[in-house]
Amino acid sequence: MDIGSAATVVAFTGVLAYAAACLWFAHRHTRARPKPPARGAAALDRVGFAARDGCARVCGEYLPVPAGRAAVVLVNGRDGRRNRELAQALRAQGLSVLAIDLRGRGGSSAHRGSFGRRERHDVLGAVDYLLERGHPPGRIGVMGSGIGANAVLGAAADEPAIRAVLAEGTGATLDRALRRRWQALPWIAGALAPGVLAAAWWLGSAAMDDDWLRRRIGALRGRALQLESGRAAAGATAAYTARVAAFFCQQLMTPRTVCVIWPEPARAAPAVAWERLAA
User: Fold this and answer.
1) Where are the beta strands (DSSP E) in the chain?
2) What is the pTM (predicted TM-score) of this model?
3) 241 close to 89: Cβ distance less than 8 angstroms
4) Rounded CA gap, 270 and 69, in Å?
5) Domain tally for the chain?
6) What pLDDT score was predicted for residue 240?
7) 258 lies in some domain
8) Burial class (CB within 10 angstroms; exposed 0-12, middle 13-18, buried 19+) of 56
9) What's the CATH code of the domain at 46?
């Protein structure tokens, strides 16, 4: 084999290795992670509905409070115990809770993930579900962590009925996951990033970047927004849970003062000369 042929084989092998590495990483971080819901009495609370884009079936648990009008959409995370504690704390304050699994997770449709860009339609479907059950616009809050945080921010920007947003650990993207994986060798992450993003697009995932998130956050002006660090969410304590419940209670249950300015009554205009003479 001559030098030219050997160089061609080496180059072709390198391209295949690069493509395989990009496909593996993109698949690993966007693949669906379905998990059948646990059996038990909680099955009575399970609900299902369509995402607003009609492309996924969302599974969740609806925990209503009798005569409670305010409600919170809670996007389930990895820590099921923490989710239950949050739901109980919110219900104890008189807030109904709709805890959902985003597409590709839990009992929802097995779709490839997009780091919140498409998953926001699942949150919007949950809002539609609450509106159909009598929860009025302006009395609905949303909460999510990581990818769920991106989803609730995107949903709130699209839906004015959402009054309060609590996002934990925002900014989860495929590019950031790649750079965190190769933190010790940033040049490898920089070389793989274009290929990984292209592979994710080829696999059917939607791109998510910081500009998209910034635009969504900017669209929430005038509404209650609380951003928490991922570290605070990971080390959640009873005090943090109480703070979360207090945030939603203040924004969704406390009556907001409305200032009404009544128009001043119109004054009678003085009669003109000929009207005075006629009188």
Assistant:
1) 33-34, 46-50, 57-63, 71-75, 96-101, 105-106, 140-145, 162-168, 224-228
2) 0.81
3) yes
4) 53
5) 1
6) 86
7) no
8) buried
9) 3.40.50.1820
- Residue 220 located in a structural domain: yes
Top-confidence residue, 6 or 12: 12
In a domain, 216, yes or no: yes
Task: Say which residue the tokens 């709709």 belong to.
Answer: 98
The C-alpha atoms of residue 155 and residue 265 are separated, in whole angstroms, by: 44
Query: What amino acid is encoded at 175 in this protein?
Result: D
129 pairs with which residues across the strands? none
- Do the domain assignments include residue 36? no
**Residue among 143, 129, 123 nearest 64 (CA):** 129
Predicted pLDDT of residue 256:
54
Q: At 59, is the secondary structure helix, strand, or coil?
A: strand
Q: Which residues contact 137 (CB under 8 A, 6 or more apart)?
A: 131, 160, 161
The DSSP call for residue 135 is: P
Across the beta sheet with 140-145, the strand order is 46-50, 57-63, 96-101, 71-75, 140-145, 162-168, 224-228
DSSP assigned state of 78? S
